[in-house]
Design a protein that fits this description.
This protein is α/β, with parallel strands linked by helices and 340 residues long. The chain contains twelve helices and eight strands. 42% of the residues lie in helices and 17% in strands. The chain has an eight-stranded mixed beta sheet.
Length: 340
């Protein structure tokens, strides 16, 4: 009964596409998934995470006073992606949805950067810009940004993923001068940036015109440390781009129950609903570090066509663009009285 009820929810959500409905019907008929157990797990999650808004505001204020003393790395997440490191460039495999997501996220990053940086080079709209891709994996997003002319540095704590990214990019000699990879965390990168501050740096090193974290923050152990590092790695007036999953009932039903347990679009256990974050909470997290959110757009995945589209609904996936405040010009000191 509950499986059929869940099927009706999904069919209503995708009512504009009969192909999607038929796929979900077939998968529900054969899937050993227990909706009652999912409801029980969902109730436990809500009991652990439900707090009143005033308590959440106090917590965010306390977090904003912390320094980058913690780590963004979740060892369990590292082990999971270590096991999948060889599959990044399989367009029909576990990362197929990320390959197709480039159709949205690459233009989203390009167009917003072009609107802020008018001095674009013909054929290379990101020419001259330094971009950091945090949690780059095998370089699925890093390479396209470099092909648009950006000097891009991709970082990821999984060494096997970085090795594969380097190997894949080596087949395109045009990327050699604009694309670099490092096996490290964002906080380790910030530490190395501080160590060499004032010295001559290679092209592609910070501070950066833009930092990108696409489908990353929902896998991090400490978002405050991430926000702190981004605030120090981005130039004044620079951009932060994030795509992630909202923390809603609908995102639990579709991103975890449907995508992982029923349709198997991504491996089971890929996502933890506790780590999802709403656009409002993400904005509150970024504000103390000098960021102003300019754009939030919803994204919707079609499991039949394997494609993404923009949506007015941000209850599942969304893309966010924030800009770091520009430094104010120094105030001129008043001239002493009596000086000509």
């Amino acid at each position: 009964m509950y499986s059929k009820k869940f099927g009706r929810i999904l069919l209503g959500f995708y009512s504009h596409n009969t192909n999607v409905s038929s796929v979900i019907k077939r998968r529900l008929a054969t899937c050993p998934f227990s909706w009652s157990s999912a409801c029980k797990h969902r109730k436990q999650l809500l009991q652990r995470t439900t707090i009143v808004s005033s308590e959440r505001s106090v917590l965010l204020c306390q977090m904003s006073t912390q320094s980058a003393s913690n780590t963004t790395v979740d060892p369990e997440e590292v082990r999971r992606f270590q096991a999948l490191a060889s599959k990044w460039w399989d367009e029909q495999g576990e990362f197929a949805a990320l390959h197709s997501l480039n159709d949205l996220r690459v233009p989203f990053i390009r167009d917003n950067l072009m609107s802020l940086h008018r001095e674009c080079q013909p054929g290379r709209p990101l020419g001259g810009l330094k971009i950091l891709d945090v949690g780059c994996g095998g370089g699925l997003l890093t390479e396209p940004l470099a092909r648009l002319g950006g000097h891009v540095l991709g970082v990821d704590p999984v060494e096997n993923s970085i090795s594969l990214a380097r190997l894949h990019s080596s087949s395109d000699p045009e990327l050699g001068g604009r694309l670099r990879y490092r096996a490290c965390t964002v906080e380790e990168l910030l530490g190395s940036e501080e160590d060499v501050r004032g010295e001559e740096k290679e092209a592609g090193e910070g501070p950066f015109d833009a930092v990108v974290a696409s489908e990353v923050v929902e896998h991090l152990a400490d978002l405050e440390t991430f926000a702190f590092c981004c605030g120090h790695l981005i130039k004044p007036g620079g951009s932060l781009f994030i795509t992630t999953i909202n923390k809603t009932n609908l995102s639990y039903a579709l991103a975890i129950v449907a995508a992982e347990q029923i349709l198997r679009i991504v491996p089971q256990g890929t996502h933890d609903w506790d780590k999802f974050i709403s656009p409002a909470d993400l904005e509150r997290l970024l504000e103390p570090h000098g960021f102003s959110v300019l754009t939030v757009r919803g994204m919707l995945y079609n499991p039949v066509t394997g494609s993404w589209c923009w949506s007015d609904n941000t209850e599942i996936n969304y893309a966010l663009h924030a800009v770091k405040a520009a430094e104010e010009p120094p105030h001129r000191q008043a001239e002493p009285e009596g000086r000509a």
